[in-house]
């Protein structure tokens, strides 16, 4: 009989149990995951650079082009999340889709889409910042503290 089917915890000690767990756990494909994350994350960043070049070629300054690029990337990621495509891409790309600004957009929209059946206010609206909210609060507070430190030092 297979070890998994004949599992009786009362007959196993801790070492035997740990050995069984290691045998049945899938082995991570670390190199494959790192390469895919690098390629997908790099593709997102390269696309962002192309957008920045496009906007600067249309007369925007570098800072304004960066803002426009961020807005487009956030919109595209949120749109793809709403269609259910971003999560499918993320299955293969892993951290390559989480680290860039597109991951922020996905973290905002995904919880909202999960609760859309509860309506626009109590579903989508209430869940929109479930994950991103603490990130925003921490970022704003950290920026404020850094600004205060900079101001005090400059006195």
Automatic annotation (TrEMBL):
**Any keyword Membrane?**
yes
| Sequence intervals crossing the membrane | 34-55, 67-86, 92-112, 124-153
InterPro entries (UniProt xref): Spore_V_AC (IPR014203), SpoVA (IPR005562)
Q: What is one Pfam family matched by this protein?
A: SpoVAC_SpoVAEB
Does Transmembrane show up as a keyword for this record? yes
> Keyword annotations for this protein?
Membrane, Transmembrane, Transmembrane helix
Against PANTHER family, the record matches this protein to: STAGE V SPORULATION PROTEIN AC (PTHR38450:SF1), STAGE V SPORULATION PROTEIN AC-RELATED (PTHR38450)
Tell me what this protein is called: Stage V sporulation protein AC
Give the source species.
Answer: Desulforamulus ruminis (strain ATCC 23193 / DSM 2154 / NCIMB 8452 / DL)
Q: What is the taxonomic lineage of the source species?
A: Bacteria, Bacillati, Bacillota, Clostridia, Eubacteriales
């Amino acid at each position: 009989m297979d070890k998994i089917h004949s599992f009786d915890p009362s007959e196993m000690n801790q070492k035997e149990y740990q050995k069984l767990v290691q045998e049945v756990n899938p082995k991570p494909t670390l190199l494959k995951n790192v390469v895919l994350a690098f390629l997908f994350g790099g593709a997102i960043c390269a696309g962002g650079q192309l957008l920045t070049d496009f906007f600067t070629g249309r007369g925007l300054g570098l800072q304004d082009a960066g803002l426009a690029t961020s807005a487009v990337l956030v919109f595209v990621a949120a749109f793809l999340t709403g269609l259910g495509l971003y999560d499918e891409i993320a299955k293969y790309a892993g951290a390559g889709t989480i680290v860039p600004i597109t991951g922020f957009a996905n973290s905002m929209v995904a919880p909202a889409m999960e609760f859309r059946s509860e309506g626009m206010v109590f579903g989508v609206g209430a869940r929109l910042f479930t994950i991103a909210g603490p990130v925003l609060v921490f970022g704003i507070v950290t920026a404020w503290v850094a600004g205060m430190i900079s101001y005090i030092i400059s006195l």
